[in-house]
Amino acid sequence: MFRKIAILATGTVGGVFAVVAYHPPQLHPVNTIGVAAAPNSTPTNTASPTPTTSKTATGSGTPVAPAPAAPTGKSGTFSGNTANTQWGPVQVQITVTAGKITKVVALKLPNGDQRTRSIAQQSAPFLIQQTLGTTTANVVGVSGASYTSDGWRRSLASAMAKASL
Amino acid sequence: MKKRQVVDQVSLITGIGMGFTLAIQIISLTATDFSGVYSIITLISRFCALIGSYLAIIGLLMIARIPWIEQAAGHDRLVTWHRKSAPYALYFISLHVFLVVLGYAGSDRNVIGKTLWTMITTYPWMLPATVGFLLLIMAGVSSYREFRSRITYESWWLLHLYTYLGISLSFMHQILTGAMFITNQLARYYWIGLYLFVAFSILTWRILIPFVRSLRHQLKVEKVVAEGPGIISIYVRGRNILKLNATGGQFFSWRFITKQDWYQSHPYSLSAPPTNSLLRITVKGLGDHSKALVNLKPGVRVLVEGPYGIFTSNNAKYGRHVVLIGGGVGITPLRAIMEEFPNNTQIDLLYRVSSETELVLKEELDYLADQIGARVHYLVGSRKEHPMSAAYIESLVPQFSDAEVYICGPAPLVAAVKKAAAEAGIPKDRFHDEAFAFHGD
What we know:
The complex is a heterodimer.
Chain A: H1 2-22, E1 33-35, E2 76-79, E3 83-85, E4 88-97, E5 100-108, H2 114-131, H3 146-162
Antiparallel strand pairs in A: 1-5, 2-4, 3-4, 4-5
Helix pairs in contact in A: 2-3
Chain B: H1 2-26, H2 37-62, H3 67-73, H4 75-107, H5 112-122, H6 126-143, H7 145-148, H8 153-169, H9 171-177, H10 179-182, H11 185-217, E1 220-228, E2 231-237, E3 251-256, E4 266-269, E5 278-284, H12 288-292, E6 302-308, E7 321-327, H13 331-338, E8 346-353, H14 362-372, E9 375-380, H15 390-396, E10 404-408, H16 411-423, E11 431-433
């Protein structure tokens, strides 16, 4: 009996260590801000003829989208509309540089209850990663966080529309 | 020994599985899990859920009749471990339910009842999980000694079947709401794989193979013979029975396809070594089911699961002198293994009953003893007349301490002989008992 318990315990400790070594937990507070790796060259594209003049709209909360700069406004920071989900609001803010999403901030995440917060915290990094550099608002999303993913897509779509992407 | 190695390996794998199970929560820890007392309570509840579910899964695997595990550990030991570990599965799962509601209610500053209602009505698959939990509690409570002794084996068995449903119903809420599965695909695959493996094992070894075998061997009741007061022998005829590889001392789980009792199966030991066309069991009418067996008609179809058990002559470690001890109807497996020992084995059979009328298969035993040169000691009377102590057994069998012991009978008798064997200095591996075959109810 003692022998079997010893074997069981050894297996358990070994199993825990093997998995944790392979995939350590992310214990620091979850970053709801994602920045794409710096582009290796400054934008030489002619697609944005007036890169420095386009104003940077830092709308937080209420959308202060630069509507007039629509045709050429391919740089700047744009906040999407708040998308309400069953578990709370989602709001995405994107920073666009030369027509590419280079920075993503989760301004609001569902906070309906404990479980929702926990899920949102875990799925945010994945959603940010999927959003960086995307050309469509229809990101893959995180299975199991379908409400958050859905809200994310809607808010992102409005942000991208404002950025005319 | 090889069998011990298999048990060790299975223990190690079980341990590693527990490690993986804990790890999938550990790797999905986030800072929010430690953001307050209630978050920590929720976190503990998730650990409880994983541990409880894992124990439940292992409990199912122990009784899934996986052949190499049955062979190595023995069916009765597996059932004993199943019995010992199952309550802990229930404790952990109950703790999970309590703590998760408490944790959620606390961090959302809600009353517990309201939180519970919200969880059940809005979270995916939470209502089935709640029903599943109640079913598990019901089956668990009915297995507690207090309750178990008040209900028949048949009722207990039916209630126990609901554990399968309970565990199945709770599965989806784990995958869809468990924080550890939502963002971690590997954790999800591991967990789904675990459940699929269990489902596969049960379907294959508890249902499919026994069913196919029973049909192939075309088992049917041949005749029912009265052996003594309330004791009957059932002869079952079939084809190529030797291919079942059953030996004396083993048992099958028997299902007789009659209108009333087709849905339940019961374990009974073979009371004679199988021949290629016949199996025999000898049963005392104690439970509802075994009483109903008296009325079995020839030709009734029989489905069997098995053979199970390692209470067999080839498990003897020493084997030149064996002492077989049977109490009451527990004599049946001993009658069956008696003629399976090698020719030069010296055999003493001690047959313990409280009155003369309970002596069953006596003529058969006397005949066999004469054939193989065994000595049969009929010990009829009270416990005072026949205290099964080391000194008493040695007065009947002087070389008891050098012998290999096989015992089957009521629990007090087994306990007494176990003590006597230990006093006589008989090592554990020369002491064989079959607790399960004599499930006196």
